Amino acid sequence: MFIIFGTRGLKHTVKEGDTLYNSCPNCQQGNLVSKLYRRWFTLFFIPVIPLDVIDRFYECDKCSGAYNENVKSVLQHSKEDMEKEQQEAQRVYAIALIATMTHMSIIDGEFAPEEEREIMDNMAKFPQFETVLNETFTKVKNYGNKDNQVFSLLNDARNKLSSESLINLLAQAAVVLLADGKIEKEEENLMKEYLIACGLPKDMYYTLIEKLRARPLTEFGKEQMN
Ligand SMILES: [Zn+2]
Questions:
Q1: Would residue 222 count as lying in a domain?
Q2: pLDDT in tens, 64-95
Q3: For the Zinc-ribbon domain, which residue ranges apply (predicted)?
Q4: Is residue 226 part of a domain?
Q5: I need a surface site. Which of 7, 154, 175, 189 has the fewest CB within 10 A?
């Protein structure tokens, strides 16, 4: 008989965690609830033994905005500073998203028109960052991950964004991989490399795939940024 075992990351609400009431920077109304991703040892795909904590973050109970633990100190700042932080997080998110999507599109050696359209649609969601997104697109389209440029951007994003946002980002980018309907083994490996570049364990791949499958693709653009 086969014994199938592995590891995967699961999201939990922290029971004793502090809740930051009515303080979501995105919707201004929701409560930020303390959450974490924990790695579990699985047997036949069922989580049986809890392992290490991958990341702690806050999630809004109203708009699902996810924030890294820094949000707590950011909330003490003036409204202006908070908006600046929020803006910066969006910028980092948008750049990493376009870089990853473009890299995924060229990885098989051909750049399909549907892939380009998908990237342009995503760029259009961030008109305030048009110039830098165009530069990122051109650089990655021409040079791929040369000098680790794509992985470095993901690594930068790690400092600003929660694990939840990073996984949302990769799931949103992976839409270009699904253009042909299924995920090839090489594409799976690539996504695991992206996770590692984000400072996350590759076990988070399954969480990523669940996000990708759980909702209609058009909804990804509405994902909160932080
Ligand atoms: Zn919210």
A1: no
A2: 999 998 888 888 888 888 888 889 999 999 99
A3: 24-71
A4: no
A5: 189
